[in-house]
Amino acid sequence: MAYTSLLSFLLLLPLLYLPLYLLLPLYLLLGRNKKKNKPNLPPGPINLPIVGSLHRLGLLPHRSLFALSQKHGPLMYLKLGTVPAVIASSADTARAFLKTHDLDCCSRPPLTSLDRLSYGFNDIAFAPYGGQWRELRKVCIIELFSSKKVLSFRPIRQEEVDRMVGSIASQTDAVDLSEELMSLANHITCRQGSNLRTYVKMTAIGKRYHVAGEGSRVKRILAETQALFMGFFFEDYFPLLGWLDRLTGMRARLERNFSELDGFYQEVIDEHRDPAWRREDDRAEDAIDALLNIQKSGGSNITDEHIKAVLMNIFIAGSDTSSASVEWTMAELMRHPSVMKKAQDEVRSVAGKKGKVVEGDLDRLQYLKCVLKEVFRVHPIAPLLVQRETIQHCRVDGYDIPAKTRLLVNTFSIGRDARVWERPEEFDPERFVDSNIDIRGHDFELIPFGAGRRICPGMGVGILVVELALANLLYWFDWELPEETTKEDIDMSEAPGITVHRKSHLRLVAKRV
Ligand code: HEM
């Protein structure tokens, strides 16, 4: 449901709660006795009856919450509909939740779309904290994200980056860099995740899945999945009004997307079970092979539903995060030509006359790493991380945080905290040149991959893809803006989403060096 129609629903909400108003006097009477045990909640904006502070979030909640935190402080309490939530907006409060109280706060809220699309939370990213999540995450870290496994996919990453460079080099007009990067990330994810022969068929050859005029079927299905993750379900904010999701059509939309995704996953799994497909060529063992092998050996209780749910995580969490990171970096480099030149000089001197940048070069690209840190500070890709939910009561900064409170860590605010960063609004990678701050979840000033028990398990591979793609773009091409545009014209506005992309595609002219 679009946010405009959401507004009209919010206006009607008080009527739907009419029966509850009749009970108000009773509630007030009981409330008086309860006051003695009232928790000491963090400060925050005034919550309206029923809608709470939901109306304040807007399309870019990280920005609205940042503005609110300027007024109410780095630890805020508010209500999202009828659901209590706390917002952590500083490195210290993030540390308190993600380190000191990590165990109290490391569950996920059971949101409607996530429930369905993760097969009842049989995945890693959206599952509640518990034995099943721990087991699956452990298996996936060993089988999918270990250094050995990540290394085994090195040829795939290089091949796909080379393919992107070839595609850009063949274009004479301005290149749609956003499209190129999305396609790169999709191909890498699909090949690492599932050696998707079907996907390749869809994008390149196959008629079976190809939907004329609207690109591949999978691309469309996954775009709808992303939209549903962002979609508004009454159930998530007004549990008593969950039935309205049927009236708005959101339930039907969710079911449609689920059954399309399920059909697709099943096909991919069946293909991997097919002895003919298994015999085929020298393909590297992918994520599905690894999970099917564990299933076969009976070593773990992995069902087809777990495999499908993990596939969903890989597709959703693994592709657009990397592409968005490179997009924002290229846009900032175009706006800051001296930074672009310094980064290009470094890349070209390290890779020399080799003809390309390879993963073995990346450790020596120290300035490029500073550029990326600065991009993650200013444009965190998942600015509110992934929502958490507290498991039990805890106390932070002297305030009570009750169990079952939603926790949003606003890394966008943390990156703009003037007590930590000098000139926070300025894009300046030099600030990291002599700094020890790293992005791997230990320094709470900069946590683009989260921290604690729920830290991104794909961080290693994500960083590799981003650095390799970026380094090759800088090595191979000099970049110019399309005719009659200046760096001041570059649109830096953000599109709404769990992961934040640029609103408009980045179009640049690539000149082969
Ligand atoms: C630049 C690339 C990436 C960024 C910026 C990123 C960022 C994040 C963030 C912020 C979280 C939430 C952490 C938290 O709740 O504390 C997360 C979780 C997750 N990410 Fe990533 N990610 C990236 C790449 C990847 C890749 C390549 C994969 C897999 C192929 C992946 C898989 C996951 C999964 C499964 C989770 C959920 C972990 C859990 O809840 O236990 N991510 N990621």
Describe this structure in words.
With 513 residues, this protein is of the alpha+beta class. It has 23 helices and nine strands. The strands form three sheets. The chain has a four-stranded mixed β-sheet. Strands 3-9-8 form a three-stranded antiparallel β-sheet. The two termini are 47 Å apart. Bound molecules: protoporphyrin IX containing FE. Protoporphyrin IX containing FE (HEM) binds next to helix 18, helix 19 and helix 23.
What is the gist of this entry?
By secondary structure, the chain is α+β, with helices and mostly antiparallel strands.
Task: Provide tags for this entry.
513 residues, binds protoporphyrin IX containing FE, disordered N terminus, alpha+beta, three-stranded antiparallel beta sheet, heme binding, globular
The total count of strands amounts to 9
Poorly predicted spans: 1-5, 197-215
Fraction of residues in β-strands: 5-15%
- Secondary structure category: alpha+beta
State the helical fraction.
Answer: 40-55%
Give the biggest beta sheet: 4 strands, mixed
Global mean pLDDT:
88
N-end to C-end Cα span:
47 Å
